[in-house]
Design a protein that fits this description.
Radius of gyration: 17 Å
Structural class: mainly alpha
Helix content: over 70%
Distance between the termini: 28 Å
Strand content: under 5%
Order of helices and strands: HHHH
Length: 138
């Protein structure tokens, strides 16, 4: 753990949601623009744009809002974060499974999907600890 860090589960959940929210939002903007708007294949533009917004950008914004609520002491932030992380975890699992079902199998999307899934599992565990801590405090 880094110096000056807090062992408080709520503070860890806030930091985790802020980091994942920023990264998820940035990836969403990147996917929506590069694979959506700037895609040379007109047929696939709307699918990649909607996928980038729905799977990455919107949950990223939700994480940032949830971390703000949690910072103010509102336990709804934990619930909102759990729902968003569960949704993104399902999407990550679909990416990993899809790579083994669809051909050709590429190592990079499998690796990125597994890392994404691991991050969502870790976030779910952090949010669970924060939820338990908030219930004990009240």
């Amino acid at each position: 753990m880094f110096r000056g860090g807090s062992n408080d589960p709520v503070q860890k959940a806030i930091r985790s949601m802020q980091l994942i929210g920023f990264l998820s939002g940035a990836v969403g903007v990147l996917v929506a623009y590069v694979l959506g708007i700037a895609n040379p294949y007109q047929l696939y533009r709307k699918y990649f744009f909607l996928g980038g917004v729905a799977v990455w950008m919107a949950p990223g914004i939700v994480y940032l809002v949830a971390s703000s609520l949690l910072r103010k002491g509102n336990s709804a932030g934990v619930i909102i974060g759990l729902v968003a992380a569960g949704f993104q975890g399902i999407c990550a699992l679909a990416v990993v499974i899809g790579q083994f079902v669809l051909r050709p199998i590429s190592a990079v999307p499998v690796f990125l999907g597994v890392i994404w899934l691991a991050a969502m599992i870790e976030l779910l565990l952090e949010l669970r600890r924060a939820f338990i801590e908030m219930r004990l405090r009240s």
